[in-house]
Amino acid sequence: MRSTFHGIETAKRSLFTQQAALNTTGHNIANANTAGYSRQVVNMQAARPIEAIGLMRSGAPGQLGTGVEFSSITRIREKFLDDQFRNENKSLGNWTIQSDTLEKLEKIVNEPSETGLRTVLDNFWKAWSSLSEDPEDLTGRRIVRESAIALADAFNMTSKQLKDLSADLTENIQIKTEQINSILSTVASLNSEIVRLEGLGDNANDLRDQRDLLTDELSKIININVQETPQGYTITMGGVNLVAGGAATPITVDTLTNAFGSGDLNNGEVYGMIVSRDRYVADYIRQLDTLANSIANGEITITIPEGSVLPDNITVNRVNPDGSTTPVTLTGAARTIGPGGLTVKVNGLNGLHKLGYPLVSPIQAGVDFFKSKSGGPITAEDFQLNPDIVNNPSLIATSLRTIVSGGSEEVVKGNNTLALLIAQLKDTKFQFGTSAGSLTEGTIDDYFRSTVGQLGVQSKEALRMLDNQKALVDQVDSRRQSVSGVSLDEEMANMIKFQHAYAAAARVMTTFDQLLDKVINGMGVVGR
Amino acid sequence: MTLRVTQSMMQTQLLRNLNANVRRMSERENILSTGRKINKPSDDPVGITYALRYRGELSMNEQYQKNIDAAKSSVEHTDTILGQINDVILRAKELATRGLNGTNPQSALNAISSEIGKLYEQLVTFGNEQLNGKYIFNGQLTDKPPYTIDGAPGESTDTEKRSFQFAAGVTIPINVTGNEVFGSGTESDNLFRVLKELENAFSSGNQAAASNWMDQLNGRLEKFLQVRAEVGARANRIELMENRLSALNLNLESLSSKTEDADIAETIIKLKTDENVYQASLSAGAKMIQPTLVDYLR
User: Fold this and answer.
1) Are A264 and A240 in contact (CB under 8 A)?
2) Do the chains contact at B8 and A33, CB–CB below 8 Å?
3) Residues of chain B numbered 76-95 and touching chain A (CB < 8 Å)
4) Are residues A62 and A88 in the same domain?
5) How many domains does chain A have?
């Protein structure tokens, strides 16, 4: 048996449903620019018709519709695209950091320029060449001193900048760790909230959007694997559990460092930071140290010209024709180098400088030219000109010759052999030792050039990877936007659709109103 | 599958393209304003290693040029002094020839003797000639005068050369020693000794001795002229080095410029193209972003 008011009920359901759809359209429009928002739709379906199968079934023919109802409000989203996005996003994070660090390294190296380390080095060799013109003068020595101090400053400063960069990266890892923990705890609490809400049968669309947005953010910082379980998202980084249901496992910098070592952490910003710090920056610090140490102590082969007089009782490593060396101690007449000169191996500028004589009386052999501030092995950080030379430039040796005059030995001040030999160190091959990387022998300039070239290649590669990765992420994101984004045109069209449906339902309601008015007020009043 | 296009997609895309355009323009602008196409190592990792090499060599050549200038002034100075010594020798020869023609009274010989004595003193002064406070004829012992007025005939100088560096691995001695110019203290034709002996011979009227020393003087003049020729040759060699250096410099500069410098015309044209694209993307963006269905619903 049909109710008299059946039509009113149908119209009412229609009004409610169309209104819900209009509300959702409004919600979509309002969130058109909200990050991570996915558009929502009201899923409408025809309501269950009356006259179900049963004994109470009336004899009336046909099933009468009972209007519309909405079963759910769902968000439009493709999980596959989310997975893809997170997968690409981690590499984007990684290359962003690497490229950024390498760009900073390029700024620190500051080449090509007229103010970089290369210029300072050139000036240093030039000062020696200039000193060889007037080996008797103090002026030339002062210029050498100043250029050596400038060289030491350049090494110290570059080393400090590199170490600062390394410290910055460490600090950033700490900051990222805090960010990760904050995301993890929020995701965990969203997990439990979503489970609670959906337990009641609703779709927690907006909370899910928030959770996905946070997961996206996390995917840029570290490599993550996301699985949806009845308890919500389970997030892992390699073998490390981060979130399981409502429980987040906070991580520390140590966790990340260990995960990096074990391979669990293999992508994302934090990975990029650790790689930048432990590979790039550490490598350039090491190369700079090698450079500084080689100038002072790197093994070189030098031919001391005929007529030179080496300091008394000095032991030099004479180079034999077969390339091996024999230590020989020179005393008496042997100190004077005979025809053909003497080829020896010495340790860098320091070793060479010790073969000569500074302009001091009584005669003495040269001192170490460069020293380390700490007394340990020379690194770029504590590279300095011997403080004795700073205080007394006369200690800079240019002469390789002495004469005996009036019974006492004295320096030949006009001899510039040592100054010439040192000026030519610019074109002399140094041994850089085993820790120097690919280049173990070459001039100081060779080494510096190869460092700069290597940096250029790495930086260019990182930039190329970054551009690629950006394009990939953009592409996936735009696929995602295509599916989930709010299109205002579409919403407007929907709005009109729902508005008309609402208006029509209202018209139906009015029609029934008039109908019933006829029944109630117009019937049975004959003769009144 | 048809792509559903949303406003935010279009905005993101527009923004990305605008960004790319601006970035390209900013790179070109940087190239134009620095005039260089290599502004950081990653701009051209291979090019920069060459650029650094050229820069290093150019900068070192500057120093070599300075060395050459100093060497030239030193050699020129030596040549001037040698010219003056030459005059002294010729005058001594002239005087000796006059004294030896056998018709001079003793008083005339005395006058000749006395002038030769003056020439001797003049020569010792030349032997102790200094340039920039350095004794030029005393080898590497530039801080010590090589000759004394009384002992010059028996004195030798230091024999070591003072060399300057004119290129990587190229050093050229720039001095001549007193021994080469005047003869060492043990040589019989030591110029000082010859003059001293001539002075003595003429004052004592000993024609035979004078004639003997006259021969020695001629011998010395031969050797002296060789030394002068050598100094001239050295000056030529230095000049040659200088020419080579400037040719090398030109070469390096053009290489360096090829490696580092931007092609301005090309860059400007590219910048103009980029500007056009940028303008187009801006106006397309403005037309595209603005309207939605909202604008047409009443």
Assistant:
1) yes
2) yes
3) none
4) no
5) 3
DSSP SS3 for B133: coil
DSSP per-residue string spanning A427-470 = GS-EE--GGG-S--EE-HHHHHHHHHHHHHHHHHHHHHHHHHHH
Give the pLDDT confidence score for residue A436 in this predicted structure: 57
Q: Structure tokens of B218? A: 């001629």
Mention the CATH class of domain B74-256: mainly alpha
Please state, in angstroms and rounded to a whole number, the distance separating the CA atoms of residues A19 and B208: 144
Give the count of Cβ contacts less than 8 A between chain A and B.
Answer: 176
Mutate to test the interface with B, among A124, A421, A481, A499 (most CBs of B within 10 A): A481
- Return the pLDDT at A522: 85
Distance of alpha carbon B144 from alpha carbon B122, whole angstroms: 19
Q: What is the pLDDT, as a whole number, of residue B275?
A: 94
DSSP state of A15: H
What part of B 129-168 touches A (C-beta under 8 Å)?
132-134, 138-143, 158, 160, 162-165, 168
Cα(A153)–Cα(A147) distance, rounded to whole angstroms?
10
B166-193: per-residue pLDDT in tens?
Answer: 988 888 999 999 999 999 989 888 999 9
Q: Are residues A192 and A231 in the same domain?
A: yes
Amino acid A251: pLDDT? 95
Q: Are residues A415 and A303 in the same domain?
A: yes
pTM metric for this prediction: 0.88
For residue A112, whether the previous peptide bond is cis, meaning omega lies within 30 degrees of 0, is yes
| Whether residue A304 is found in the same domain as residue A358 | yes
Asked if B178 reaches chain A (Cβ–Cβ under 8 Å), the answer is no
Its ipTM equals 0.88
pLDDT above 60 (res B1): no
CA distance B159 to B140: 8
In a domain? residue A115: no
Same domain assignment for residues A276 and A243: yes
For strand A247-248 and strand A240-244, is the pairing parallel, antiparallel, or unpaired? Answer: antiparallel
Q: A255 and A328 share a domain?
A: no
Write out pLDDT tens, residues A399-409.
999 998 888 88
